[in-house]
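FIELD: query
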Amino acid sequence: MKKIIALIVAVLFVFAVASVSIASEEKKAAPAKKEVAPAPAEKKAEPAKAATKVISVSGEVAAVDAAAKTITVKGKKGDVVITVDDKTLADVKAGDKVTAKYTTADGKNTAKSVKKAAATKKMEKKAEPEKKAEPMKAEPAKPVEKKK
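FIELD: result
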């Protein structure tokens, strides 16, 4: 009886693995067919979306290029080169922590706003003298009374 149950479970397992692998192959083949026809329409729509989408990056200014009017911000996802105006270029220097909001158009990142992060100074707390607890005096244990 145990052998029959083990055989049935093994056959069901083989069918489950086979169906999953066939289903994954069909999913890989299906998107390739869909991408061929609507791809030109999607490419036209993407630049319009990218121009209006504002992206934010926070990090440290790695480099300032005055000639190209760009700053390079080291964010969590990598370095981002952003074109800025003259006023921002004068205010920001390498090593500053900034939060920049920018848009992408024609492969060029243009700053909408660049804000320096507030300088955080660690407040030194005056160490208060700790009060040491006095050790408790141990009293001898009382003998347990027997109940009658």
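FIELD: remark
Residues 33-37, 121-128 have pLDDT under 50 and may be disordered.
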